[in-house]
Amino acid sequence: MTTAKEIMHPGAQWIKREEMLDQAARLMARLDVGALPVSDENERLCGIITDRDIVVKCIAKGRNPAETKCADLCEGTPRWVDANADVSDVLHEMESHRIKRLPVIENKRLIGMISEADLAQHLTDDQIAEFAETVYGR
Question: Which UniProt keywords apply (predicted)?
């Protein structure tokens, strides 16, 4: 059984919900990532923001990223997977919620992220095709 921990990109970092989006953008640039998990005051996952969110939901709407909190872009229930989850469970979670990045949690702490690139390295061609059709095809 291949687990989420085995396919994830380790070393993901939180950004606190009260931080401003310009800080999130700088952290994304420094880490060379396109998404950040957002934590509440107890270091619990409360959302994910992406570089696209910052552009489309903030800048394109005339808002100032230096005056807009990360919490303002967090929508819906955040999805995550346990570090010991089987890769089929990871795939199901991402497909059923049509998401492209999934935080990996171990002992209530963020330990990594799974992205499409991580999936592509560990799935069969048929699984990748199904994922792409499910997440992008509808």
Answer: CBS domain
- Confidence (pLDDT) at 75: 75
Tell me which residues of the chain have a pLDDT lower than 70: 138
pLDDT at 138: 57
Number of structural domains the chain divides into? 1
18: three-class secondary structure by DSSP:
coil
Give the bridge partners for 106, in sequence order. Answer: 109
Model pTM? Answer: 0.84
| Domain range enclosing 84 | 4-136
Residue 30 belongs to domain with CATH number: 3.10.580.10
- Beta-ladder partners of 20: 69
Quick one: how far is CA 75 from the chain centroid?
13
Single out the residue of 78, 66, 67 nearest to residue 14, CA to CA.
78
